Amino acid sequence: MLEVEGVTVSYGSLLALDDIQIWVGKGEIVGLVGPNGAGKTSLVKAIGGSVSPDLGRILFMSEVLDHPTHRRIELGISIVPEGRGLFARMTVNENLLMGAYCERNPALTEQRLAHCYNLFPILEARGTQLAGTLSGGQQQMLAVAMGLMSKPSLIILDEPSLGLAPIVIREIGAALKRMRDDGLTVLLAEQNASLTCSVADRIYIMQAGRIRYHDRPDKLFSNPEIVANYLGGGDALSSQRSSDKVVKHDAHT
């Protein structure tokens, strides 16, 4: 569904992405793991159209992505940015409707609202509350729901667990699995290796703007050096082993 081929991005003299090559297949959750400054957000921005690659190309559904951001949304790509990007002085319901601004059919908008409320019931209960007054976890749920309101084929989440309590992170993980069960494709950019390993079919590990490793979680965990240096050691290993996720796709390296 998504192919990133040899993408290089620089900001002046700073090389942010160096010959990045990844692919995301239909119906997968693919993780993009790396520390702060690894280049994850730059890659998300390149896919979304807010950053232009110096080299390489990005394809979505076999079509080269050289469109403006709004056109990429219309094609079926939705991005939930780091920092959530909510309209703090608008209500929960108003924020959700903003997520569906491309939709002209009111009946379809109502269907999507119902789907988001089913995924995150707290949002329906908080429908008339200002987004800026929600808890951090509720704000993140709202940000994800806004991303779903455009009915994407591919949703990209940038650091959805940042600053959240463990119980909320587990709720986000459960929601991601439900998205995959519904046929949605997910690219998850995260520092939290435990969350990523508990939901992802495949994982790319980034460092200093490059892809260092790529495989299924179980394969990555067979390498003690990778576990110690990139996947959070014992905590992530325990999370991966206890996950009820079934890996459905072979890794391509």
Task: Explain how this protein is built.
With 253 residues, the chain is an alpha/beta fold. It has helices at 40-48, 69-75, 92-99, 106-119, 121-125, 136-148, 166-181, 193-199, 217-220, 224-230, 234-242, and strands at residues 2-11, 14-24, 29-33, 55-60, 63-64, 77-80, 154-158, 185-190, 202-207, 210-215. The strands form two sheets. Strands 6-7-8-3-9-10 form a six-stranded mixed beta sheet, with helices on both faces. A four-stranded antiparallel beta sheet has the order 2-1-4-5, covered by helices on one side. α7 (166-181) links the parallel β7 and β8. α3 packs parallel to α6, α7 (166-181) runs parallel beside α8 (193-199) and α8 packs parallel to α11 (234-242). The longest helix is centred in the last third of the chain and has 16 residues, at 166-181.
